[in-house]
Amino acid sequence: MPCPRKAVQSLKGHTGPVHVVSYSRGAASYCLSGGQDRSIRLWNPKTGAEIKRYIAHGYEVLSISCAHDNAKLVSGGGDKSVFYWDVATGQTIRRIPGHAARINAVSFNEDASVVASGSFDATVKIWDLKWLRAQARSPIQSLEESRDAIQTLYVGPQEIITGSVDGHVRTYDLRKGQLTSDYMGHPITSIVPTKDQQTLLVTTLDAKIRLLDRKTGQVLNTFSGHKHDSYRCRAVFDVKEECVIFGDEEGRIWAWDLVTAAPLPPDPERVHEKAILWTEYHPLNDALLTASSDGMISLWEM
Amino acid sequence: MAHLKKRLGQAGVDLSNPRLNESFVLIGTPLPPLDKTKDANEFVPLWKQESDPKKARWTPSTFKSSRNDRNKGKTMRPEDFMDDEDRAEMQESRKLVDMDEVAESHRGHGMAVDETDTITAALANMLPPVNESIGAQLLKKMGWKPGQGIGPRLTYEQLKRRSEQDGTPLPAVDDAEAVKHTYAPRDTKLLTVVRKDDFHGLGYTPAGSLRASQTASTSSGPRISAGFGLGALNEADEDDLDVYDSGLTSGSRRLAFEAGEEDEDDRKPSKADAQGRPKVQSAGFFKNGAPLLGGFVVAEVPVPAPPTFEPPVVPQSWNPDPNLVWNSESAPPTGNEPISHQEWRKGVSADERGKILGETPLPTATRSIWDYISAKDRERIQGIKENKDGGSQPTAPPPVYIVKVPPIEPATAKAALLGFQPFKDDPAKQSRYTAYLKAQASSSAIDLQAAPGQSIEDFNNELESFAKAAQIFKPMSAAMQSRFRTSSTIEVAKKQQEGLYQPTDEAYAAHETKAEQDTKMEVEETPKQHAAKMGMFGAMTREQTDWLPMKLLCKRFRVPQPKIAAAEEVADDSSASNLYGASVEQEPVSMEVETSSASNAIRVVAAGEGTEDGGKRDLTNIGLGEDDTQGRDTLTYERPGMDIFKAIFASDEENSDNEEENVDINDLARPPVEANTKPRPAMQIVEPVDLSTFKPVFVSRSGRDPKREDGEKKTKKKSKPQPTMSFMDDDEGGLTVIPTAKKRKRDKDGDARSSKKRKDKDEAKSTSKAPVTTYEEDDDEMWVEKEIVPAPRVAPKPPDMPSRVETTNRRPKAADFL
């Protein structure tokens, strides 16, 4: 079955929960992780080697985004500032203050010319990275429609999709100049679009994962059975987009068939001692990364 | 010297002869006398020199290497760094100096030391110098000097007036000069209290003592009021005579300044006062020769003697018995004895007073003990009594109390109904209050019900309090009342329980269900939430509103700014975009993109064209007056060809532009953005590419996801200014340095950043031999414009290039599209 369940490697190094793990762009041979220990670490997940450490955060790291050319990095966390890193030197190029609370989600756009940051202060701010040297210290735009903290963020080629604790998925379509908000009824912890951009995988705190049709706002499928009621967990598609994978709060990795929404056998076992806070699927291969609250990052393969 | 001596000795000269030692030296140091054996300064050959133990010398034995003690850290004192001068200075500073002024003035100040009294002076000198009191120090810091008075400085006028009042006018000074300055107020003399050492009766003149005889001898002439400005040489005027000088006290002042003296300026000049003073005259003398006070006259008729009373006649039989007096103190109090304050305060009741006065008491009802017992007690006692009297007797029916309804004005009741609700905390009571008010307002006998468990008496009391409350909470005036609204709901304050609260299971369950209900109510507040709860996602849970992305944001995302946003920005000329320097050139015309569904044709309409027909007034033509064509030439000004600008401004440095370069290369790699407002199709349009200008770099990679191909290509082609370390494309597990992607030859105008680029581009296009398809997006202009391809009449249209838009090398006008 398509879900990778074989533990290949575990990346040990973080002390405290690992909040986010993210594959690099391109061939995605590397992964970046950010944790409660205020560090961002660059790993080779295959060998399990820690390559580099990015130390500048003063608080926990909650989100990482990698530029399309892997040369730059952006991260956000409890510092209330977006940290813009140079990958090679390991130094911050700029720290962008402006948010009033911790930053839950950051994301580059396609060509890393802007970065969007979603914060606990219920705003998404979009920062220009091209005119860094200019005196412009204010964001290009601030999206303040949300009534509660922004938990997740997706920046597409022409739109910005935010998921908020107020239960709304808001799609800011730059092309149309239109804001579409879909009410999901429960706090949203992650949104992941399919590659064709037609549907969104929305994870909510009522222990349900829904496949949302972006065009109509209808829910095409609902995946349930897992435990998810308090942490920011993330559901992803596998590389062929045949199944939905989710690491839940009990440390189990769930997999559902995308079409039938039936959980895939075998029954998920507890593979992490604590909650899995982030699930990341390799963009090209069948490999899965899970970051857990127990400080471990595990690589799973078929 | 030694040689000299030797020779002289050989010559037989007596060296002790004083004549030999006679000194004729005028300059320099004379040689020592010959009879001296030793000359310290005599030259001694080196081999004869001996060490002199008196002179301190360096000896190797005293040398001690400091190498080992280097780390001991010798503590350096400031003195170690001082030269002699500094040290002397320091010594100087260490000397103790008595900085206190010798308070001589203070010594004599209060004590009135007589200089002639040598003993006193000697004693005073023996006393250590008096330190200034802290008050004096403070005063000095505030600018006071000894000898001055305290207070603000005075003008000459004020000082003069004050002196005159004191009876010590100022010496005549040149007024013109004097008025220019301010003067410190005069000193107030310390009031010295003279110890009274005589206890004489009034009018008794003590016998002339030794001191009195002394003063009498020293004081001669009229008594002059003491004060400022009168010296020994000044002649005493009549005014200077001290009127009130009785001769007993010395000539010191008895009055300090008064508070009212600050207002002297308002007063009349003091001359009148001086004239109004009674003149001192010796009007006459008493018969015994004593001088008469001024203004008094000796009476001609002698004053009648006061009446005298004869002492009472003592009876013969009276025997003085002091025991009577002594015993009376321990005798029982009589009515006349003093009473305590408390007793006095209690006063005497009318009855008591009457009794004391012996009045006949007024005919009143006889008082019984029942009068002093409250109604309740009375009732109780009555009941007890009856029970005692006859236990078998049935208890009497409880006394019926009628509900007494205190009446109030119907108007007041009506108003009070609208006014403040005083018993909000107790809804039941409030309802009774309302019922009472309603009954009073309608003047109808509505049956007022007491609360269960409330006695009639309590109810009566309550009704009375209601009546009072209705009067007190008299509603506001109509004008005031209209500003307020009585709350529609009654807030019930939660009753606080004492002690630790331990919820019972039922209470807990009730609380839970209530909370659930509450959340349920909240959830079901809107249909949207209801739909979400029911799982009916779709139209019910979806909301769509307009949203305006900033121009710069659209630029960064390489999407056209939406129509609404564009319109908005033209209207308010968004400052944000200016801040980022995105729009260097303000478009005088607003571009409007219209999409026809049949074809993807673009129509670029100049906004200025529309105003000619419709004459619509908008922001673009405000201020033009009636003449809409005014300034048209400015608006439609065509810039000269790019060659001119290039010839002037272009430089080689343009090529080494790094940051913006990336964008443009990226732009080249990107497919053109379709000029319509519908979402971009997922499939990228493959455009014909001119190989002379566009050289894609291929990355050999197997198993690549075809969907990512495009993005990757873009990534690869992104040229970097310097070698960039990246963790891409490496399978071995280490960071590799990827050299900078081959810098591709680019169109020279590709990197132009400013708005002149567009024109430039057009020029390039029209002049180039082969038609160029630019996929470059204009950084600063409206995106539609870049789609413009060379006009057919300027350059032949390439056969493989589908022309979307007709264009010219200038800004198109609406007429071009007609």
Automatic annotation (TrEMBL), chain A:
Query: Cross-referenced PROSITE patterns, in alphabetical order?
Result: WD_REPEATS_1 (PS00678), WD_REPEATS_2 (PS50082), WD_REPEATS_REGION (PS50294)
The segments carrying the WD repeats are 11-53, 54-95, 96-130, 269-302
Enumerate the SUPFAM superfamilies for this protein: WD40 repeat-like
Give an example GO biological process: mRNA splicing, via spliceosome
Q: What are the annotated GO cellular component locations? A: catalytic step 2 spliceosome; cytoplasm
Which Pfam families does the entry mention? Answer: WD40
Per UniProt, subcellular location reads as: Cytoplasm
Family, according to the entry, reads as follows: Belongs to the WD repeat MORG1 family.
Return the PANTHER family for the record: WD REPEAT DOMAIN-CONTAINING PROTEIN 83, WD40 REPEAT PROTEIN
This chain belongs to which protein, by name? Answer: Related to WD40-repeat protein (Notchless protein)
The species is: Serendipita indica (strain DSM 11827) (Root endophyte fungus)
TrEMBL record, chain B:
Q: Name one GO cellular component term.
A: nucleus
Per the record, the coiled-coil ranges are none
Please name the GO terms of the biological process aspect recorded for this protein, alphabetically. Answer: mRNA processing
Bias kind Basic and acidic residues: ranges: 66-79, 266-276, 702-713, 747-766
Region annotation (Disordered) ranges: 47-79, 257-284, 329-348, 611-632, 650-818
Q: Which domain of life is it from?
A: Eukaryota
Q: Which residues form the G-patch domain?
A: 131-151
Q: MF terms per GO, please?
A: RNA binding
Spell out the Acidic residues composition-biased ranges.
651-664
Extent of Polar residues compositional bias: 329-339
User: Any idea what this protein is called?
Assistant: G-patch domain-containing protein
